Amino acid sequence: MNLNEKYMRMALEEAGNALSRGEVPVGAILVTGDGKVFKDSNRTAELHLPQSHAECLVINAACRERGDWRLEDCTLYATLEPCVMCAGLILVSRVPRVVYGAWDKRFGAFGSVTNLLEMRHLNHYPAVQGGVLADESALMLKQFFRNRRRKADK
């Protein structure tokens, strides 16, 4: 198993934690250059805050612990393509590499709906790779929303 798969499997575990709490099942892992791992999952319903996406939570945790807003030696792994909000935070915090699982055809900001990397004059452009364990990530999301629709129909 390569490193991308290893960390994406950890992110999938976090997504499962979100699912067990009734949250949209998205997980994120942030790995620093010295090997420190930050992990979390979506908590928007739990915290009643729209910015409580998994990606934002791990970035914020790493910045707090390091005492710096720049994460120039980190890789972010997320089970779903980051949305515009999360992608903006990735750009601002200078995360140099992003790996994600499933494409987000509703809110994806790294190619599916829009691509923030096409914006000219940014001072930071991370390397982005999508599709790592995409089927597993997408399946968990599809099941979550299918179950939510069933409950709404009853």
**Low-pLDDT sequence parts:** none
Helix amount: 40-55%
**Measured on Cα atoms, how large is the radius of gyration?**
15 Å
Kindly state the number of beta strands. 5
The overall pLDDT, averaged over residues, is 96
Hey, roughly how much beta strand do the residues contain? 15-25%
Number of helices: 5
Largest sheet: 5 strands, mixed
Q: Give the spatial strand order of the biggest sheet.
A: 2-1-3-4-5
How far is it from the N-terminal to the C-terminal residue, by CA?
43 Å
Q: How would you sum up the global shape?
A: globular
How would you classify the helix and strand content by structural class?
Answer: alpha/beta
Order of helices and strands: HEEHHEHEEH
Folded structure, characterized:
The chain is α/β, with parallel strands linked by helices and 154 residues long. Helix content is 42%, strand content 16%. It contains five helices and five strands, in the order H-E-E-H-H-E-H-E-E-H. Strands 2-1-3-4-5 form a five-stranded mixed sheet. The longest helix is centred in the C-terminal third of the chain and has 20 residues, at 134-153.
SSE diagram, text form:
Layout: H1 3-20, E1 27-31, E2 37-41, H2 44-47, H3 54-66, E3 75-80, H4 84-92, E4 97-102, E5 127-129, H5 134-153
Helix pairs in contact: 1-5
